[in-house]
Design a protein that fits this description.
Layout (H helix, E strand, L loop, with lengths): L1 E6 L6 H11 L3 E2 L2 E2 L1 E6 L4 E3 L8 E3 L11 E4 L10 H12 L3 E5 L2 H7 L7 E3 L5 H7 L4 E3 L4 E4 L2 E4 L2 H16 L1 H10 L27 H8 L8 H8 L3 H12 L3 H19 L4 H7 L5 H11 L4 H10 L21
Parallel strand pairs: 1-4, 1-7, 7-8, 8-12, 9-10
Antiparallel strand pairs: 2-3, 5-6, 11-12
Length: about 325
Amino acid sequence: MRTVAVVAVPPVKAFDLAMPASLLGAAVVGDAPGYRIMVCTAVPGVLSAGIGGFDVVVSHGLDAMEEADTVVVPSTGSRGSADDTTLAALRSAFDDGKRVTSICSGAFVLAQAGLLSGRTATTHWALADELAAMFPDVSVRTDALFIEDGPVTTAAGAAAGIDLCLHLIRTDYGATVANAAARAAVVTPVRPGGQAQFVDAPLPPENGLTLAATRNWAMERLDTPLSLEDLATHARTSVRTLTRRFHEETGLSPQKWLLHQRLQRARELLESTSLPMDQVARHSGIGSAESLRQHMIRHVGVPPSSYRASFTRSPAAPQSEYPVSRTAVRRRQP
């Protein structure tokens, strides 16, 4: 079991503190929980809430970070005045080699502690300019759900924190456990960190027509070649309209979405079966064993044989998927 310390920097919101525990708590390895979660703060007791929230009680002090493998700093209303004790504890955790992450405005706390200096990071798009202005030595991006830069990972808004938690589960225990946790929590399966923070149409159009049925249809046929024309025919629309609406609803092009789903399928097969590489490639729709190897190296960081071997030696899996560019891209407000 891995230990995660969730650091509360008041003012806080109950949802922001509870979300990592809810998602990580859904990870089950065998018959045992994958994580022990401890919420901690500089001065244990009743913490003041942010606007519209309610006070919360935190019982652990910052020494909980000493037991943790991973430290998570969720959103906080204190974007420039985190207490020195918390900042020192975060620096100590980082120096001890612990994985340090933030969600939304928690990035401001990591930046104050100096942990984002010289790194690429993200936060909620509405706070990006403020973060960049306050900490000019941080390369701030707004076109990603989360960014992993060495031992530090930052996520965008609260919803992106869900994606970050699933990413942590997948990093620690693999795609099968992460996907099972997503199903248990009734959330979208693992999405690549490089996906846009927001989509142009987060709600279904008024006519009720979405591409959800087409995506489900494609998921059932990942082992077969699927062209844009195939998807458009199923959706009863043109290729141009399909591409536009796909990006509006998912933040990805149809091709990138398909590749992501196929790599997820391949990772599950590598983790849970002994199928030869050519069969893993065929069942996941990636084609040949060589194509699988190239995609795994590019998007996961290791060849499929090494990925599979990691699950025979230990529960830990390679860390990154769809590495994101360091080029900062500005996104328009939805």
